[in-house]
Design a protein that fits this description.
Distance between the termini: 49 Å
Strand content: under 5%
Low-confidence stretches: 1-13, 212-241
Order of helices and strands: HHHHHHHHHHHH
Structural class: mainly alpha
Number of strands: 0
Largest sheet: none
Helix content: over 70%
Radius of gyration: 26 Å
Number of helices: 12
Mean pLDDT: 76
Oligomer: single chain
Amino acid sequence: MAGTPRSRIQASSRAFPWKQAAIVAAVALVVRALFWLPASRSLFMQTPVVDASFFDIWARSLVEGREFQAQAFFKPPLAAWVLAALYRLGLGMHGVLVLQLGVGVVTSVITFAIARLAFTPRVALAGAIAAAALPILPFFEAQMVAEAWTTALAQGAVLLFLLGTQERAPRAVQKLAAAGLLLGLAALGRPNVLVVLPVLAAWLWWQGSCGSACRLDAAVVAPRGAGRRGLRPGDRTGHAAQPALRRVRADQREPRREPADRAQ
């Protein structure tokens, strides 16, 4: 029955846990607020220095319509392009940094969504909270460099890749294309992010080469493990293996029939 408690539990396990995502976002927000309150009074938050100064000058040149660099870029252009767009919107240095801290909060939720696809719910929540509380992240997000944007874009690409490669995923081609687009944009800020491409390719190859053998292993091994610990709500592997297990048991119960000529 659709209205039984068991069916409601299974349906809720498939839905995205927005309450847990809100907890992750709240942790990330508190950590960034605690960082920003004292850091905003620092002179380093008043005047860009080192790489931030380079991107600031580059962005202001773009806003003024001047050519900053005629030949190959000395640094990846994403940070300068984003800064130029934000400057055109009227944001100053503090506005840009606060916005980037907000992007970091969004990235922590994306990290949680990735972890939900790759790990158990408990591990996903614990890992996402740990990532949201990592103090080095707001340190880089509160600088006028590309790290806040490249991290968000790369994490978004990984999330779309995982969603697009799920079995019978709706609009899989569009999700994979969007993942490639986000990863390409992230490479404009941090080119070495492209190192993830051979990793994803190897993972796809492994998934394809594993094929039916892995599914057979899941059908045989998962029910045995479930017998020891019990199937838990949301245990997709165990539930997915049950039809295959039932077919095997039905074949075992069916009596063997001798050919007609041998019986005679």
